[in-house]
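seq:
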Amino acid sequence: MIKFGPSGTCFDFAESGYNGTRDIPKWIKDNGLDCFEYSFGRGVNLKDETAKQLGEIFKIYKIEISVHAPYYINFASTEEAKAENSFGYIEKSLNALSLLEGKRCVFHPGSPLKNNREDAFKLLLKRMDLLSEYLSMGIYKDFILCPETMGKKAQLGTLDEIIEICKIYKNFYPCIDFGHLNARDTGAIKGYDDYKKIVDKLFDSLDEIKVKNMHIHFSKIEYTQSGELRHLTFEDNKFGPDFEPLMKLISDYKLTPYIVSESAGYQTREAKIMKNYYKKISN
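struct:
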């Protein structure tokens, strides 16, 4: 079943009188949404007991929860200590996710830094092999990890690179951030046909279940020649991409992804706009 929700809380959350983490599930439910992404961008600082309590509340409200692993992750680092830290960030994220009773963990693959891109990606794939081996043998074998397409050209995370990562392990599902793809290609997504090329390529390359149930991040994003600069809202008329043709494609293809809004400050409002539009055209 397709799900819509925000990444993190937004301006409307506080302005509506909600002020605590435990209010989030009710807030999501009251807005007619289905999922929520808890970001550990600056580190996994959620206490185990709090995570367990929060997971119980999400379960009561029937809201699916995913997490975003720390931004510090770099599986392409030539420094073994930093690579080990990246494995640690994933493990901590999955521990919190299990206590929250969620199933999906989004992560950034990494950056070449001073290494050349080809060698950096080969190193990243070796580390993904190790990660998949670790996952397959342990308590996290049923969790879904979602490597994300990235918005800056210098970062690893093109569509092709995410596809290659997702081929490694049965529980690697793509996180397609269409705003990122549009930004790194300086405005390449103009409409329905451009979205279709992306989704068709996914179907040509990956198992159908991974594509139909992929993880999606969406927002309009300002960009420069280097790629992503900052997230925007649907009010922007310059940078894009537009969400309407994507919703049409998802309806036409009968996809059932998680769709997470990452717009600047109005994630809940714009997740709701996307859901309402999808329901309208699907009916």
